[in-house]
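Minutes, structural biology subgroup

Action item carried over from last meeting: produce the structure token record for Response regulator (Streptomyces violaceochromogenes). EB confirmed the sequence was re-checked against the source entry. Recorded below for completeness.
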Amino acid sequence: MTRVLVVEDDPQLVRALVLNLQARHYGVDAAPDGATALRLAAARQPDVVLLDLGLPDMDGVAVIKGLRGWTRVPILVLSARQGSDEKVAALDAGADDYVTKPFSMNELLARLRAAVRRTEDTPAGPAATLVETEDFTLDLLAKRAVRDGKDVRLTPTEWHLLEILVTSPGRLITQKHLLNEVWGVSQSSKTNYLRVYMARLRRKLEKDPARPRYLITEPGMGYRFEG
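Output recorded by EB:
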């Protein structure tokens, strides 16, 4: 059973989420504040976290950073905050997705399924399990990235995005395809997700992130990996 941790201080929304998730056979724990969320996450080891940013005791970004200190569990942010700066701050802190309130339950469940799917180990083909460049090495089977002899920590979303690109070297992967595969959505309005995550991957893997050699942008179309 997939276990979900709901971090939300609105009792009515918590009830709606718990009922909908349990009806679809998810196990659910709920936390009304950040401190309880961090404690429950450590004790219950959820498979995915649904996190409101506006918590009574701490900002949700602080909770994301607290979780990212020890776990790669997918984190879906739920927030009424509309500003792109706040979305980028949450994604930069390590969130995997951002759903703006009010949202449809069907969209949220689709995003949740996509987040869980990203964490499942899907064996790559024999020829694609190891990707070696002059600057870094990726072991796709072990989900391990090494740069300058040191492990590079990547979130599940970063891994999923990277895997799609590196297993089709030289091929243009469209924005729509990446959004659908990684986040379960294809709306062009979500292309800022791709910009944020590609920037993070370049910072972690490229020698000169401002002039990427491996993770190439095709403006207005998509991205490709040059090995």
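Discussion: The longest strand covers residues 3-7.
Next step: EB to file the record with the rest of the batch.
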